[in-house]
Model the fold of this input.
Amino acid sequence: MDVARRLALGRLVSLSGGSAAYIALVAAIYGETGSALWVSAAIFSSVVASVASAPGAGWVGDRFDRRGVLIGSDVAAAVVSLAMAATAKHAAALVVLLGVSSIAQSPFEPASAAALPTVVPKRDVARANALIAATSSAGYLLGPLLGGAVLAVGASPATLFAVDAGTFVCSAVVVILIGRPFGRGGTEQHPGALAGLRLIARERGLRLPVLAGIVSLVGIGIADVASYPLSLNLGGGTAGYGAMTALLGGGGLLGAALAGRVVQSGPARVLAAACAASAAGLALAGAAPILVIGLAGMALAGAGRGLGDVASVTLIQARAPDEVRSRVFAAQDGAAHAAFSVSAFTGGLLVQLAGPHGAFATAAAFALGAAVLAGRTPR
Done:
């Protein structure tokens, strides 16, 4: 577990820095242009780059030593962050560089998830996944808070971009200090950048959990868009929206922590239960007559999401052969980015057509559908 603890520490540092830098990015772009369309353009750039680079990112993780891939990805991302610090007053440059940063970071997650079963004893894989997921959730929680606080005291966005570069370097140093090989896949038996996608399509034991994760993420994306208008309807205002978002993330942290104790009992069964819990939470939030019940629903939905993420990763690690595992995770990541972007657009339409309560009911239906898919996964 020592390797997992070090990897978790590196992810906590780099994701905190990256989340803080995202706040700085939005502030810099909006401050220069005064237009939310430019912010949307930056998000679109990041999503398109992530989806487009996923096949290549997975191929790199299966073709080369995965430890070197992690280090190279962190170093490349640090260089891009420094470039963003140098161009912090140019919105167009930031939009382009955010896409480049997404490409630089894209090999890290698939290679890291693929390597974990080779550096951690089999009995500890689920607990290692839970630890990394929990610290990642903590990074996503801490980063925006730190970013907003630093900007509030007068620091410039360029400063946060430079700090972000430093956090990537710290992550690379953590991997270097581990000092042991992370293994490598192979391209002979499963050639081509799309081998992971083909394997998912062919193997039911991979296809169903991946589909369940994507369908569940669509529900979370719809709820993410509908949370602010729901808070307004419940009298929570901006503070209520912030609390909803924080509890969704905090619930994810709790779910990831719980996963370390229960996932080993049967990841497919746990994934189905986690999706069902997420569905129940979203339904509770959508039907809430008062804000406190809506907050409880968001916490439950977040816990289900965090638990399900760990169960899904553990399932894929067990069922995808090592020589193609990075490409399987990359295919899953690319599909997840595409699904989340579609759900964000769909969520806006649902709020317009059915109101926030109806949008949350739809989100709960997607999560329930994910539970059904997960429940059909072979044990």
